[in-house]
Amino acid sequence: MSLTLDRPIKAPLPGSGGRFPGLRRRRLINLFMHGLLLLVMVATAGVLIWVLAYVAGQGLKYLGPQFLTQTPPGNPSQPGGGFLNGIIGSVITTGIATALSVPVGVAAAVYFVEYGGRLARVARFLTDILVGVPTIVTGALVYAVWVVFFGFSGIAGGIALGLVMLPLVIRSTEEMLRLVPRELREASLALGVTKAHTVRSVVLPTASSGIITGVMLAVARAMGETAPLLLTALGNDLFIELDPTKRMSTLSLQIFGNAITGFKAAQARAWAGALTLVIMVLLFTVAARLIARRSSVSRGR
């Protein structure tokens, strides 16, 4: 037994130049998967860059000061004009949708994560179903319960967009709240702070950056929606409408209406409107990131 224990170990150590069974195969598989993922990432970024570049190339041919300060001409075949009424309408309807969906969505996510229970599980299941509901169905629902009684309006469009945004806000907020370390909650509760105050003063500020990002993704989704607005806001192409209780046009509606015509001038306005919509979403996203970085938690205080 002593001779066996005293015998030197001759097995090769990692990095000593010895050969391990299957080592070369594992390295090749690892290299292949790394290259495959890199290729997928490059392809995804390439498609995005191509779409943005094409939209920019087509939109810049027409986009100018007059496009941002004028309404479309009465005759769609005529050149000139702009989508000022659609820009204003998009801001109003999306603002209504944000005001309706964000408080409800954040509150629901807090209840799911911090309190839970059977009701939370049922509500989470319904939220998952709502994510997959086509937006045209959402528009039809709002048409049946609102438009039939109160007429087409920006408020109806905002309600429809709010229903589109709600499950996205809930899911993104829920995921951000789950990333907050449990130790922060326990430390606050150990000091005698109530659970509600802990959520308000510790959990939500810690997750604020991710919550804001999720909200902006939902806003970007809502600003690009057309189908629910066809059944709710309906559109008002020739006039600037500031009253949300009346028919209201949006950028997405104007892009759709001008793109399906056979007139080159209208299609040019549609490309400019698409570029304007992309720029608006980009500006909102950048603003949200800057706001999140300025929060006390993001600065590490």
Mean pLDDT reading: 88
Binned, the helix content reads: over 70%
Through-space gap between termini: 63 Å
What name is given to the CATH topology? MetI-like fold
**What is the CATH architecture annotation?**
Orthogonal Bundle
The Rg value, from CA coordinates, equals 27 Å
- The total of beta strands comes to 0
- How big a fraction of the residues is strand? under 5%
Provide the CATH top-level class. Mainly Alpha
Transmembrane segments: 28-53, 87-113, 125-146, 152-170, 202-223, 270-292
Family: Belongs to the binding-protein-dependent transport system permease family. CysTW subfamily.
Main location: membrane
Membrane topology: Multi-pass membrane protein
Molecular structure report:
The chain is mostly helical and 301 residues long. 71% of the residues lie in helices and 0% in strands. It is built from 13 helices and no strands. Helix 2 packs across helix 13 and helix 4 packs across helix 10. The longest helix has 37 residues. The C terminus is likely disordered. Part of the binding-protein-dependent transport system for phosphate; probably responsible for the translocation of the substrate across the membrane. It is found in: Cell membrane. It is a multi-pass membrane protein. GO terms for molecular function: phosphate transmembrane transporter activity.
